[in-house]
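so my prof wants the structure for this chain in the tokens format not the other one, which i didnt know existed until like an hour ago. anyway here's the sequence
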Amino acid sequence: MITRRLEDMLMSGSTPHVVVFGLGGTISMSSATGAGAVPALSAAELVAAVPGLAAAGIDIEVVEFRRVPGASVSFEDVDALAEAIEERLAGGATGVVVVQGTDTIEETAYLLDLGHTRPEPVVVTGAMRNAAQAGADGPANLLAAIQTAATASGHGVLVVLADEIHAAARVRKTHSTSGHTFVSADGGPLGYVVEGQPRFLNGQTGRKTVVGALGKAVDVGLVTMTLGDSGTSLRAAHEFDGLVIAGFGAGHVPVGVVDRLTELAANMPVVLASRTGAGSVLSRTYGFPGSESDLLNRGLISAHFLDPLKARILLHRLLATGHDIDRIRATFGQNGWR
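here's what i got, hopefully its the right format
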């Protein structure tokens, strides 16, 4: 599918209006002294440095929202950002670009996606090399993101880097330094930015949002199973409001933690995901103690295709909006197949 919205708007004399929200991250960092890179550039400076943007026929509005490393972005930051995005889109913006650190893009983008019910595009981007490094990728990523935000309606929240367009629910950061770190292992990219135009080759099915007023603050844990795990990693798990278990393979845990997980699942939602980062948790292939079927029979909730980080974001949002265990189980049954 070729997106033609920008061409149609230009032919009608209407100029796309894209709002760029700056949160900071590597894309905004530099190092003038030779020491480690730190946030230094404003969102406006980032936009001004993008080659070819002035000729793109897109009206740009820049909002300096935060200037923090990606690792320091919080749930509260994303919730405030979502409100600001809604305000701009309701005011007539064609689309939105969020510029932030790549450390947490796979989580923040999905959190935004869960609350994004409008058709206008929201595109999240960043950079793997800061502005002081040779081959800095920030300007190219920002240009591609703006071009996508000007045209790609109806796809929810997207992540655009290295001219690839990813669904927020699928994308993962898979390498600490590579410019092609972001991949969608289950399904691949939705499309690519080609000659300034987003071109979609496939879509996502069953996209669901989670709406509702945010209640009390919640805390959701994530525990990864490892060889010989005796349950020590779960010792403080009762302090959480919900828990995600990143199990082996198709959703397996050591037999020594089964009873502890059974106790926890009786008192809070416990979601079972796969630590592999691709593929689905199974439901009935294996039957030994600690297998996926055993754990699901003990009350754990399958994450299906959602990886552990995405499963934690979904569980956090469900708990924060007051969903009970039955609705949480039903929502994972819908969202986990994306």
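also thought this was worth mentioning. Residues 30 and 36 are 8 Å apart (CA to CA).
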